[in-house]
Every structure is written in C-alpha cells, then in structure tokens.
Amino acid sequence: MENEEPPKRDLRERTFKFARQVIKLFVLLDRSVLAQTLGRQMLRAGTSVGANYREADQARSKAEFIAKIGDCLKEADETAYWLELMAAELVVSAVQVASVLDEANQLVAILTTIKRHAEGKE
Q1: 4 φ/ψ angles, rounded to the nearest 5 degrees
Q2: Measured between alpha carbons, how far is 87 from 89 in angstroms, rounded to an integer?
Q3: 59 touches 106 (CB < 8 A)
Q4: Contact 20, 98 (CB under 8 A)
Q5: Which of helix, strand or coil describes residue 111?
C-alpha cells in the first residue's frame, strides 16, 4: 500500500497551520457574548489538536500514543462541532468557516485512521 497516513512532520505542521486558521477566524468574530463564548470554545479545541499531536509524537508507549491520538481526534471533532454551531447560529457565515471546517473534518479522518491503525483495527 502507498502511504496511508501523512508523514509525522507533515501532520505536525498541518495541525499547527490548523491552529493558526482557528486563531484567525476567532479574531474576526464580533464582540457579542454569543460569538465570544462559542469562539472561545472553538479556539480552545482547535489549538489543542496540534498540542496533543506533539504529545502523541513524544509518547513513551503505544498505549500513551493511542490515548493522545484519541485526544487529538476528540479536539478536532469538537472544533468541527463549534464551527458548525457558529454557522448555524449565524455567528459567522458558512463561507467564513468552510475551509476551517473542511480541514477539521480532514483531520478527523486522518486521526481516525492513525488511531485505528495503532490499535490494530486496520
């Protein structure tokens, strides 16, 4: 099989870029309570993906790696949730969140594959 998952370095850089996309979206939000509340949730989850990936990359055991990749997966999926909710509540337009949401969903797919492979389920 060809490369099923991106090289470690690429995913490390990709999750960093994702965090920057989330930050850029957050700073564009208006100052309403709703926008700031949902935005802070998105910001926390979206910037956690890369931080957790770095921890997974430094894992001392397979179990620790699987747990940290699971954390990455959870945070990427949670970011997608907040993005979807912000669009549904008209805090941001669907166009504004489209690329960040697409990247969140791609990261979910990649991290799911990595986790399943590490668990021996693929």
Answers
A1: -85, -30
A2: 5
A3: no
A4: no
A5: helix
Domain ranges of the chain: 8-119
pLDDT digits (tens, 9 = 90+) for 19-63: 999 999 999 999 999 999 999 999 999 999 999 999 999 999 999
Read off the pLDDT of residues 63-109 as tens digits, 9 standing for 90 and up: 999 999 999 999 999 999 999 999 999 999 999 999 999 999 999 99
- For 119, phi then psi, to 5°, come to -80, -5
CATH 1.20.1440.60 is right for the domain spanning 8-119: yes
* Structure token digits, residue 88: 């549904």
Of how many residues is the chain composed?
A: 122
Cα 67 to chain centroid distance, Å, stands at 15
Q: pTM for the complete prediction?
A: 0.90
Residues 6+ apart with CB under 8 A from 32: 91
Question: 67: which residues sit within 8 A by CB, 6+ positions away?
Answer: none
CA 29 to chain centre: 19
